[in-house]
Write a structure and sequence with these properties.
The chain is about 60% helix and about 0% strand. The chain is mainly alpha-helical and about 160 residues long. It has two domains: about 70 residues, no CATH class; about 70 residues. The longest helix is centred in the last third of the chain and has 26 residues.
Length: about 160
């Protein structure tokens, strides 16, 4: 998840799309090595994840952040904006053709197409976020296949 999603999809790509360069402090290997020595019962205490980090920042963070439950970070989902949905659909039309889906051999084209059509019609917010994730992963799989097996270069961003 770290390499394939967190750092790329939710990190580097979002940073680059906004002309930024991020330096994820928690990826410093000295800090990561130290964090690995912290016992699990200190990392999660009374059901509170990242307890030791929260306590270290208790007098620095605003109360809302200190008390906030942990949640997954995602780039803005496609289902929230017609322009984003159209951009994703354009990638779907390009990368998820019957020939490509068959060549990758993981999914059945008819079922995939039905899923994507239903995903765009979904009204439940939780299901829509899940659907966005599944569509993104499906696109990534087929784009990687296109790039590394078919030799099709990925489009560049101007």
């Amino acid at each position: 998840m770290l390499e394939g999603q967190i750092l790329t999809w939710g990190g580097d790509r979002m940073d680059m799309a906004n002309s930024m360069e991020a330096r994820p402090a928690f990826l410093d290997h000295h800090l990561a090595e130290y964090a690995a020595t912290i016992p699990p019962e200190v990392r999660i205490r009374d059901g509170v994840e990242k307890w030791v980090l929260r306590e270290a920042m208790k007098n620095v963070l605003p109360r809302e952040l200190y008390e906030r439950k942990k949640f997954a970070f995602m780039a803005p989902p496609a289902h929230t904006d017609p322009i984003k949905q159209a951009a994703v659909q354009e990638m779907v039309d390009h990368w998820l053709t019957p020939e490509r889906v068959k060549a990758v051999g993981v999914l059945q084209y008819d079922r995939l197409l039905a899923f994507i059509r239903a995903a765009w019609e979904e009204t439940d917010a939780t299901a829509s976020r899940r659907n966005d994730i599944l569509i993104n992963h499906t696109l990534q799989l087929h784009m990687l296949h296109g790039q590394y097996v078919e030799g099709v270069p990925l489009p560049t961003v101007d």
